[in-house]
Amino acid sequence: MLKHDLAAIALMLGIVAGCTETVRIKESRGRPTQYEDPGSPGRVRGVGLESQDVVSMTDAMARDILANPKVVGVGKAPARVVIDAEYLKNESSSVNNKNILTERLRTDLNRAADGRLVFLARHHAEMVEQESDLEKQEVVTPGTKGPTQQPRGWDYRLGGKIMSLDSTNRATGEKAKYHLIIFELIERGTGIIVWSQKYEILKSAIDDVVYQ
């Protein structure tokens, strides 16, 4: 009987020791969180669009738009612009969050334009309409600027495409991806492209990064 008890205790100790070792192994695989510069290549890199590409692209686009006299003319009323992802098409082979491009571009432009452009929040149209309806029903009072006015129409709206070409070396497993991103500002009524710019990236790697 004693032998059975000793065997059971030894087995339990072995299981506990094994569990402890497993926990140690799992803990050893992690590393402390590190803050990284979003404008520089990070520790996890692949051939897809990454933070440094988004930062470089939107910074360059914002500067180019503000330098365009057709869009930001001296001595004329500020143009009303819609910058959103509604007409930005992703035709690439990658999963890309289009909003991260347009949201950063609009935010940078709105800050740097300093009143030379007016940005319409079409992505918040439902919020504006709901408040307008409440005012008409006299559920809420008009704002400090008086009764609700007609929503403003846009002069220019963003359009564009995200495209890519992919290649793989079957012998080495190395992958290459060429990205071409086109941004355009379309004039209301005429459909004229008043501004356009492209951003090109070519990356290669033995890629095992998953983009989500």
Helix content: 25-40%
Silhouette: globular
Mean pLDDT: 82
What is the gyration radius calculated from CA atoms?
Answer: 27 Å
Amino-to-carboxy terminus distance: 59 Å
User: What percent of residues are in strands?
Assistant: 15-25%
Structural class: alpha/beta
Largest sheet: 6 strands, mixed
Textual characterization of the structure:
With 212 residues, this protein is α/β, with parallel strands linked by helices. The chain has a domain at 45-73 and 90-141 and 152-207. The chain is built from 4 helices and 6 strands, in the order H-H-E-E-H-E-H-E-E-E. Helix 2 crosses helix 3 (98-113).
Layout of strands and helices, then pairs:
Blueprint: H1 2-28, H2 51-66, E1 79-82, E2 88-90, H3 98-113, E3 117-119, H4 125-136, E4 156-168, E5 175-187, E6 193-205
Parallel strand pairs: 1-3, 1-4, 2-4
Antiparallel strand pairs: 4-5, 5-6
Structural descriptors:
alpha/beta, 212 residues, 6 strands, single chain, 33% helix, 6-stranded mixed β-sheet
Write a compact overview of the structure shown.
The chain is α/β, with parallel strands linked by helices and 212 residues long. It has helices at residues 2-28, 51-66, 98-113, 125-136, and strands at 79-82, 88-90, 117-119, 156-168, 175-187, 193-205. Strands 1, 2, 3, 4, 5 and 6 form a six-stranded mixed sheet that branches.
